[in-house]
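Quick one: co-fold with magnesium ion.
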Amino acid sequence: MDANQSLRIVAVVNQKGGVGKSTIAIQLAATLSRRCRVLVVDVDPQQSSVWWAGNARAGLPFDFAGRQHPNVLVRLRELHATYGVVLVDTPRMLEDTKPVETVLDAADFAIVPLTPEPLAVEPTIRTITTLIEPRHVRHAVVLNRIDPRIPTQLSTWQALLDFTWGIPRFDTHLRQYKTHADAPVLGQVVTTLRDNRSTAGVIADVTRLGHELSGMLEPAPVGSW
Ligand SMILES: Nc1ncnc2c1ncn2[C@@H]1O[C@H](COP(=O)(O)OP(=O)(O)OP(=O)(O)O)[C@@H](O)[C@H]1O
Ligand SMILES: [Mg+2]
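Sure, here it is.
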């Protein structure tokens, strides 16, 4: 990758469904739009983010391209003067991994959301070892839907990632909040949510994740990936 090129293509991927790919793509796009121009590309045939964007009557702080064939990402390099970050929302994968592979071929970084449930583990590790690592795409897991009422949940899952599986992760995690589940219906994103007691946690978590991702997207030292 050309270190002078400012565009960063960030894929949000996990073969497991329902782990928060669309939630994280849209909410991260909103918070990153405070620092640069952001485009969200949805290559999911189910297009949950298309529906979310359609509900946003007040408009979104980023550009949105739904119903895209993954091949468009190759052409996106030509838009590097326009966009700082492109976030790609990808579908869960049953058999056909080709669309996600095409996205990963074009990606600078992959975010892998993981929810703390045993059934999510195997597909997550498979996504990383069979699709991401062979392409040498920099990546990190983000723990999502962490329940603060379960005292050891966060530390247990962090330890599994760090010591049992040896998978890179974000320091930031996203807690489980009803606001996240309501946001698509209301067409809300962190930058349009009213900041109050029930939304403060969501805004804080997503803002922190955005800062951490921005740090990771700085040009990598030569020879690293
Ligand atoms: N941190 C959270 N707190 C509460 N609800 C959440 C959180 N993250 C995601 N959800 C909810 O969980 C459901 C699944 O999330 P989402 O649609 O983002 O997952 P996905 O990985 O994109 O799913 P799919 O594989 O079907 O595309 C949605 O109803 C979403 O609102
Ligand atoms: Mg989705």
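If it helps, The helical segments are 21-32, 48-55, 72-76, 98-106, 118-132, 153-165, 178-186, 200-216.
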